[in-house]
Amino acid sequence: MPPAAITLLTDFGTADGYVAELKGVLVSLAPGAPLVDLSHDIPPQDIAMARLTVARYWRRFPVGTVHVVVVDPGVGTTRAAIAIASEGRLLVGPDNGVLSPALFSIDARVVQLPIDDTASATFHGRDVFAPVAARLACGAPLEQIGEPYAGAVRLRTPPPRRDAHGLLHGEVLTLDRFGNIITNLMTRDASGMVKICGRAARLVRTYGEASPGELVALVGSSGFVEIAVREGSAAQLLGVERGAVVVLSGAP
């Protein structure tokens, strides 16, 4: 059987040779494994963005896929290195919450990876995660590469809260490259208003329902309410940051 596909999500960027070193290990130890670059543009050390990104894609790939996630501000410290088997997929990375989406499945199994003394204290992606990913892609059982581990960090998206007046209070989770503001609000209603930074955005179903330059809100592909400017940037318009309060009225 050929090796399974290996996906890569990092904050390395592509200007330096870090991604190349990672791939060099993978193609050497798992020749023929398809390597899929998901993104190397996660903002540096942005664990929250990495976690939300993993949540979007990890189940979209076929059973057997190995997902490598290297957003690791604690590299070289006492934070654990882990591998997870969950819903038929395998994930490898630091135990800092980036792999949380796979930990909530009922069948999730986790092992802690050994870190050799020869591993660089600043590049576990190359020296720890890539070799393990290659072994898993070639069929090694999870239990052969580490010891069972029960202490994995589990981060959750905070739920919104409803006040006594029926208004739903949430927060900004992240900003995407289009300048859309992703919140933790969820609704099935295509009517109502979202208030943020003293501005009100009406809920629409598609961008096409908004006028050019109009601030609107809509349910994005992740299922969360997003605030957007048609043909513009809501993040730039509002100068908003992660954690800012958003309020939804008219939700069911």
β-strand percent reads 25-35%
Helical proportion, percent range: 10-25%
| H and E string | EHEHEEEHEHEEEEEEEEHE
Q: For the report, how would you describe the main beta sheet?
A: 7 strands, mixed
Widest sheet: strand ordering = 2-1-3-5-4-6-7
Please state the overall shape, judged from the principal axes of the Cα atoms.
Answer: elongated
N-end to C-end Cα span: 50 Å
Find the count of extended strands (DSSP E, 2+ residues).
Answer: 15
pLDDT averaged over residues: 94
Determine the structural class based on helices, strands and strand pairing.
alpha+beta
The radius of gyration over CA amounts to 20 Å
Number of helices: 5
Sequence stretches where pLDDT stays below 50 over 5 or more residues: none
Structural write-up:
There is one protein chain. This protein has 252 residues and is α+β, with helices and mostly antiparallel strands. Helix content is 18%, strand content 28%. It has helices at 18-29, 47-57, 100-103, 124-137, 234-238; strands at 6-10, 35-39, 66-70, 81-86, 89-94, 109-112, 147-148, 161-162, 168-175, 181-183, 193-196, 199-203, 215-219, 225-229, 245-249. Strand 9 (168-175) and strand 10 form a beta hairpin. Helix 1 (18-29) packs parallel to helix 4. 38% of the residues are buried. The mean pLDDT is 94.
